[in-house]
Every structure is written in C-alpha cells, then in structure tokens.
Amino acid sequence: MTLAHLLGMQYDALGALVTLLEQERQALAVGNIDGELLQQIAADKQTLLEQIERAEKQRRLNQSALGYADGDAGAQEAARDANCLSDWKAVRDASERAARLNELAGAMLTMRLKHNQKMLNLIHSVAEKTLYDTRGRTEAQPGRINASA
Question: What pTM was computed for the model?
C-alpha cells in the first residue's frame, strides 16, 4: 500500500472522527444528556481510532522498511520523497484538531461530573439534616416547608 493511500485513509478516518467529536461536544452542551447517543458516539469513535491506528502502524512499518528514520522527521522526509507532503501535513492538522476537540469533550465531561457531584452532595446534606420525632415524622425546620400535612 502506498504512502499516499495510507495517508488518505488516515485523513478520511480523522475527518469522520472530527465529525463525531463535534457531535459529542454538541450532545454534551445540551441540558438533558442523551446517554444512548453518547454511547453510540463512543462506539463509533473506538472503531475509527482502531482504523486510524492500523493505518498508522502500516505507515510506520513502510517508513522503516524504506530506510527512513522513525518519528516526524522521517515521516516528513518519506512524504516529501513520495510527493505527498501536503497529504502528510493535512493528516497532522486533522489529528491536531481531533486532539483539541477530544480535550474539549473531556473538559466538558469533567465539568458535568463536578456539577453532578455538587448536586448529590447538596441532596445528601439536606437529607441528613432532616430530623424525625418519636412518631417518625419530620418536624418543621426553619426555612423549610412542612410537607407532612
């Protein structure tokens, strides 16, 4: 498989990954989270990541077999010699965009988790402050509504 073909495969898969990451960002930005949608996005992302990894492994093997150094310098030299330097740069740009979107999604998830934890802590603190009398009823507390009526 040629370097240009491998880079094309990676670029296409990264484009699809960026699209999924943007969908994930939008799904996380709404008030009500659609868990099923996020699960499907996660499964689709995993499939694409595996596809990208296979193409990347093959590209590295080809690069090494042709005598180019490992790493970015060797990859850039191999792409230049194969007349597909612009493809290599496009793959790098797409991978950087995917990485930024992935970081954003992670930050959004972390923010939601912290918010949810604060809400749970608040609920637990309110529940612990509820006092019961000998009849098993709650007493009216200052600033609280007595709902035992």
Answer: 0.76
Main-chain phi, psi angles of 138, to 5 degrees: -85, 140
Residue length, the chain? 149
Cα of 102 vs its chain's centroid, Å: 4
Q: What is the mean predicted confidence (pLDDT) over 31-45?
A: 91
69: its two tokens: 């150094």
Distance, CA of 106 to CA of 34 (rounded, Å):
16
CATH architecture of 3-128: Up-down Bundle (1.20)
CA distances (Å), origin 71, targets 3, 19, 41, 74, 77: 15, 27, 31, 6, 10
Handedness of CA 39, 45, 47, 53 (dihedral sign): negative
